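The authors assume throughout that readers already know how a fold can be written as discrete tokens. What matters is that the chain and its backbone geometry are given together, residue for residue. A single example would do more here than another paragraph of explanation. For illustration, here is how one protein appears when written out as sequence plus structure tokens.
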Amino acid sequence: MATPKVPAADATLRLLTFLASRRAPVAAARIAEELDLPRSRTYDLLATLVEHGYVLHLDQERLYGLGPAAHELSGAYLRQEPLARIGRRVVEQMVDAVGESGHLAVLHGRDVLYVVEERARNRPSLVTDVGVRIPAHLTASGRAILAHLPAPQLRALYGTAADFAARTDAPGPATPKELRELLTAVRAEGIASESGEVSDEMGSVAAVVRDHAGWPAAAVALTFVEARVGPAERKRLATSVRRGAEEITRRLGGRAETAGTSPTGR
């Protein structure tokens, strides 16, 4: 016997699934057309989802995308199941190979949330423990993910100077323009880095992990004492995080993209 449908719930879930499958925010008219829903009902559903944080309305572009609450749900799933389970083993192998501490993080609003942490032997403890949140624009992990977000979503997260914070005296991006310039370099290189912006005297390199749609689902990073790592070693660490990210992407059934590309083709 078939389970009876609840029309409102069915439409809501189809709407969220549709937004999750898009690489960039879309217009309400496009949503209504794709899902074969009346426009008035589509706007009502969107308004309710915006109110609860599951959908983000980009006023200037008149577009809709997934909101912070939807990312919280996806993050909880990732922490509990495939990403953390798969990522932990890859991070462990990476740390064993290079002798520096590694971690795996996902984006939550303007923060990164650490879901895997592996400390190397004889290395200092880090602030990036599992469950810790740090402003994404300061971290190598966050920059690796932010570099591949659609431009409207990045503007929604970092639209004004008030959206930027600092943890140390090291200069980090403090305006939307500075962040965009930094992320352009990250896309070109395929590797993100930070130097003393999370913790004094520490640096990190990171690479993005992608899901089946090519979306930036997470980032793999290695953190090290900067005084102990020269240019050649830093290059070796960058190669290691790139390979680790590619391996997690492969195991997740994700689709890798080459440096210089993004979900929106920017």
Notes: Confidence is low (pLDDT under 50) at residues 258-266. The chain has two domains: 7-66, 71-251.
